[in-house]
Amino acid sequence: MFVKGSSILKSSLARTIMLLAFFALPLLNLFRIDLLNFHFFVLGNKFNFSKGYILLVTVLLLVFMFVTIAKWFGRQFCGWVCPHHKFVMFLNSIQNSKLLKDNKVLRFIVEYGIILLASPIISYGFIAYFYDPIKLFNEIITFDYKNYSMLAMAIYTVFFFVMLHRKIRYNYCRNNCPYGILQMAIRDKDSVGNITGFKNAIRGTGTILTFIMLLLVGVLSYGLITNKGYTPSILKMEQGRVVGDYVSYSYEISIENLENKPVTYKINYKNVPSTWVTDLPTELTVNNNEKVSRDIFFKADESTLNQNYIIVVEFVNERGKVVERTIPIYPFKRI
Predict the structure, then answer these.
(1) CA–CA separation, 252 vs 292, rounded Å?
(2) Domains in the chain and their CATH numbers?
(3) Which of 79, 197, 198, 227 is the 20 to 30 A CA-CA neighbour of 120?
């Protein structure tokens, strides 16, 4: 009896932690995708979509994590982890309480009052994975209905309200949950029915899943460790304009600061012929989470025409993290 009670307490605690984690992940920038500004966050690190491979690896890691749980432990996710199951059990305990069990009207008011309150909260938690959660919260409390985020909030609030209806919430778990169907599909005789299934990590197909998980963790760790905290770019502007005895080339350099503090970047230029006339900034200060652009100019003299040059632009942040970009220039005069 004590063992059974201890197991119920542990599973309830695990589901509560996962329910809190559902809201905490985007709020703490542990994982979310900012579709509006084309950024994503992994374990507090901010990335531009140019680092899309890190996002791909993170999503694959999450997918294989859930597949691995089903393979190692069988159908334990629903009982130990699923936040939806936790909330459904909470609603069940409310409607079956002594106070409400024999009072249908009061039970209906309390049950659907909780659902009405919970639906926008769940909707907020879901949308926060794809939209700045702080900005979304400010738009909600000021009722800024002109933004599409409020329309999304309304749609998903209705959706989750319907999903939590007494009849639908049970049928969803039994017949429609994609992960529940996946658990049934990949479960075999080695997928044990308790939390001791870690031994499946080193036998059968579980070994392959373990290897894939370790590989993805390694790739993601490398991406996070080598994260520079900023993204420089160079945009080609005016090319080959003849100015007296020179041929002029202009570019726009940009630095996006992905850190939460202002940073001053040093900019070095390599392989620039000494006879060229240039206008090249050597330092750029960018506020936190902002992007700053500057124009640069190269004017090639006649003695260097019809030759290929690869200009290396080196960006260095205050921590000594270096990112290089190249500019190929082949100066010539059009006839």
Answers:
(1) 10
(2) 2-225 (no CATH), 230-329 (2.60.40.10)
(3) 79
